[in-house]
What does this fold into?
Amino acid sequence: MSGRSIEDYSAPLFIAWQLTNRCAGRCLACCEDSGPDRGWVDELSRDEALEVTRQIIGAGIPYVAFGGGEPLGVAHAWEVFDRLAAVGVAIKIETDGARVDDAAAERLAGLSVHCLQISVDGATAATHDRMRPGSPFDAAVAALKRAVARGLEPQMVFTPARHNVAEAVQAFDLAVSLGCGAFVTGPMMRLGRAAADWDGLACDDDAWARTVDALKARAVAHPSSTKLSIYPWDIVSELGHQLVEPHAMLLIVPNGKVKILNALPFSPADLRRDTISEAWDAYRRAWRSVEVRDFVAACFRDPSLLRHANETWPLST
Ligand code: SF4
It folds into this structure.
């Protein structure tokens, strides 16, 4: 996508779709503030979700990533996956792994899921379970094993915080020992529940820099088939990059509203009212709007404004 602008594309290249905001976890660093009681009352119904799926396929969008909440906890999720996979749309699923039993792992393998990410926020059950109450370590590790056994090359995702950053290298070792396709990490995002307790949760910049060096050194000293993937930017840096060159993507939140980025509260379209094509036009106008540019500039001055990230503000563009 480098060197090309969103104006050059007649449709998004990528959809990020949150089917629900409900999940079993109460993870400290959740960037969506999801949980067992956090489902939205107006989440898309099965029929509405399948209509969105039909439009995604019709628009020729090649890649859809499902996050949440827990996508595998949605009754119609498999119908959505089946329809996308049947026409060759690549699928990414971000899950806590608790629902990836043998049958689900078989089904995911049958769909040739392009990317399966499972969060493990510690090298030990004690640390992980402290970071991710309700999202057990043993279930996540068992899901990774099932996915590895079926050739899915799952990615272990590790979110660093002051409670677990000391175990990052051990967690990488765990990913290697399990045969994961990648160990994915990066600065904790100041969004959702993480933003609400940022001062109590975030590790300091020096600790993270030392951890990055240690992870890279480990990967060099112990080469393996597990790729080490370290996202370089925190969320404020990400905002700056997106403002200059927005990704050709739409974020669909559980009630069908379309947001321009998970870190920003602006929702220029609603798939209950607008088509994907109309949403794409609104998305592109939104990124060039004064309102969005002013808000991003304000976030640079005051990152605490990211507390609004999970809201959906209308935007007339
Ligand atoms: S990180 Fe995942 S499992 Fe944990 S609260 Fe958020 S959505 Fe739920």
Observations:
- Residues 205-221 form the longest helix (17 residues).
